[in-house]
Design a protein that fits this description.
The chain is an all-alpha fold. Helix content is about 50%, strand content about 0%. It has a domain of about 100 residues: Orthogonal Bundle (Cytochrome Bc1 Complex, Chain D, domain 2). The longest helix has 14 residues.
């Protein structure tokens, strides 16, 4: 007894045709990502290990600020000053301009920030040296932010 494969073939063709609809109104990127591929969070807070906003306490942690000063003087001072242009931009008022999370992501992930973040790409037009990776821990990055917060001229 032979069975006809006609009805089964019709169902298969119908399913294939339904899956081949018009793709003109489909987008290649999710709606929450801008054209550069960054999320809204990454636009504001940078690209790096800090994927949630870092909240600063109301008071400066003096011990953490001292640790941050030591790390800053050893790793950052060759290129950055607090109140004057140097190899890199002055950092004394950076927390008035950028979020603490942005600063910490820049410290820990300078290469990708330079390659992908529009703010950093704009800075590279004025300061053409890419910040080198300094092997700074999350704790040290947070301490540098506390130091910059305390040292704001």
């Amino acid at each position: 007894m032979k069975r006809s494969s006609g009805p089964m073939m019709g169902i298969v063709l119908l399913l294939i045709a339904a899956g081949c609809g018009d793709t003109a109104d489909r987008t290649s990127e999710p709606a929450d990502e801008p054209e550069n591929g960054l999320t809204a969070f990454e636009e504001e807070h940078g690209i790096g290990p800090f994927t949630e906003e870092v909240a600063l306490g109301p008071e400066i942690d003096e011990e953490m600020a001292r640790m941050g000063q030591e790390v800053f003087e050893f790793n950052c001072e060759a290129c950055h000053a607090l109140d004057e242009r140097f190899v890199g931009p002055p950092l004394g008022n950076i927390l008035d301009i950028r979020s603490p999370t942005f600063v910490m992501n820049m410290i820990m992930n300078p290469s990708e920030m330079a390659q992908r973040h529009p703010v950093v790409q704009e800075l590279l037009r004025e300061y053409p040296v890419v910040m080198p990776y300094q092997n700074i821990s999350e704790e040290q990055a947070r301490a540098i932010v506390e130091y910059l917060r305390d040292a704001n001229p």
